[in-house]
Amino acid sequence: MTRIPDPVELTQDLVRMDTINPPGNEEPAARYLGELLKGDGLEISYPRLGENSTGLIAVVPGDTSRMPLVFTGHLDTVPVGDAPWDSPPHGGEIKNGRLMGRGSSDMKSGVAAMVVTAIHLAREPEGKGGAVFVFTAGEETGSEGAFQMKESGVLPHEAGALVVAEPTSNIPLLGHKGAFWLECTAKGKLAHGSMPDLGDNAIYKAAQAAASLEDFFSSAEAHPQLGKPTVNVGTFVGGSMINMVPDSARFRVDLRSVPGVEH
Predict the structure, then answer these.
(1) In 3-state terms, what secondary structure has residue 28?
(2) DSSP state of 2
(3) Which of 63, 138, 207, 244 holds its CA 20 to 30 A away from the CA of 120?
(4) Which of 76, 140, 144, 247 is catalytic?
(5) Catalytic-role residue among 26, 27, 139, 247
(6) Which domains are assigned to the chain?
(7) Active site includes 139?
(8) For this structure, is 43 an active site residue?
């Protein structure tokens, strides 16, 4: 019987795998974890999302009279951004007691903890209900992998509870905010930059609309666990040349709702 992986070392291994989304490229991470779990007799499958994007489902058999406990997390990460890093984003280095790297918190540490949990459950199954571990691809771009799994019917139909290992400072929380993404487009009239009065600047329109959203939820009531709903303008695109009045501009909005807020 192989040694149970150390969760910190396993997190380091995962951080060293570049799963920035886009494009994702989660398949090497999914296959690596699948091989670890397969050695302890878990039932393994790899739901595919794209050419190099693959999720992982691992099933620990158990007492069939009880609904399984489902654990879930995602394998992809957001980009590293443009600001310089103090440590290599995919180095998995430990400095001053902290594991550094893209995805170390969100959420490769959570994935590593769940994998270690799965192995423990598989090795000590007596008297336990089953467990299903669902690791998705494409979470950072709209939870595409989770939707694909749902539509393809590979997810369990029932669960006693669902545990999501997103970072919460080790404080168990019930529920999380909803997400609603919008793309807003403003139209204008093209003109030369030397004669802007002959055109209609779409960027000005879009900028005014985007700025008006800053206090959109300022008077909303806070949820006792989740806080207030939030709004964020995440991207803004407009114009094609500096010397032209833009006739089109668009921005994307990320709304995060709490119970009581309708989409």
Answers:
(1) helix
(2) P
(3) 138
(4) 76
(5) 139
(6) 7-164 (3.40.630.10), 178-257 (3.30.70.360)
(7) yes
(8) no
